[in-house]
Amino acid sequence: MSLKFKYILFVVWIGVLWFSFRFLNYELRRIKTFPQIKPRKIGFVVARIGGKDGVSEEALHWMRILKTDGHEIYVFTGENENPQRLQGLAEEVYAVEECALYDHSNQDILKMAFEYQIMVPEDVLLDFIYACKDRIKTQLLDFIAQNQIDVLIVENALSLPVQIPLALALREVISETGIQVIARHHDFYWEGEREQHFRTRYPHIAVMLNELFPPDLPTVHVTINSITQENLGQRGISSLVIPNCFSYGENIKEISELDKEEIRNLLGIKPGDRIFLVPTRAVRRKNIELAVEILGDLESMGYENLKLVVSLAVEDQEYKQQLEEIARDKGVDLIFAYDMLKGSGFSPWDIFWISDIVIIPSRWEGFGNNLLEAIAYRKPIVVYSYPVLQKDILPQGFDFITITEDNSNLNAVEEQIKLIMDTISSEGHYPREVQEAIEHNYQLAEQVFSYTQIRTMLRDILSSLP
Question: Is the pTM of this model over 0.90?
């Protein structure tokens, strides 16, 4: 063996030792930073799971993070809208019909308590509520015992009074068993425009709302934005802020050109049409009429073949009809895509792939899953300045086309949209400055709203629990 060859082997050996030392040092530091958390059996309690609403989506994000960390996931729900989304994720899913939002008994309670469609004496209403609570409580205790649940994560069931018997059952179970609980609050009934929907003429129901949503129990309270944290603090309850998240850094598999063409055909979109996507449900607080107004203005300026696509479910038929009337008056082609894609094998998120610009016109969002998704799909974003955007998101340094609260800069916003429309290629490629903003938003979101950040926060919480 030549001296030169021995020297090369020696250098390689030194390199291997150096790399091994650096890797071992990194692992030791990582372990020190993130101590090993004992595996837990975690039970998620959520009225509805597997759907397209923000609570369902965020619950799934946490489940994936916790599953990856070695915990076992169990689900106690009223409605499992899409069982496939929980396959391989949850060990067991307990679907208890009486916990569902649209269960007949629950709908009767809401009609009696808030809508006054059914008029009864208060004691009759309370007896009915407590009877439902007792049945749910029995099943919740069975769920905890059979699966030896260590920690409950309650998703919004102690925040909005849309399932009062479930909230009562939870309060009693938490108080009586002493089980560890993380209560995640996405939105409260006393925030924004919701409060008017939960006014009641029954004194005991009013007291119940104040004591239950949320209850002041030895629970870890988590809010998804700092505004809600401050409001909750004024009620004497401390909480942690854990923002919504997305699986940034994991490649989203782009669908094929044939699939894109099929989606266009299903939605009646022709080659050359420009697609403005509103990735929300059709409910009033989503303020979709603002997006209709923007497209109407663009049409009046001579822009043609514009399509406004609302991708998620219609949950207010009266509002849908009003939007259709506004769109007809302004000459806007408005498409409600959710039902049109049913049975096709495509999801509402696939519409991102064929979209040119995303508009998020909501007056209020607890955080904004649709915003995080639009960033992940690398689209230019036009967004209304809802309070949480101003307080928690824009200060991070994101680069969106932002509509002011009073719409006073709408002309300037439309000019920015026109610049994109005038320079986007026929293949859908954006000009350099737009692409740079898109990439900047993605990289920033990966730093502040990814699974990595949320995993760290959840590990901290779980390590603090007995």
Answer: no
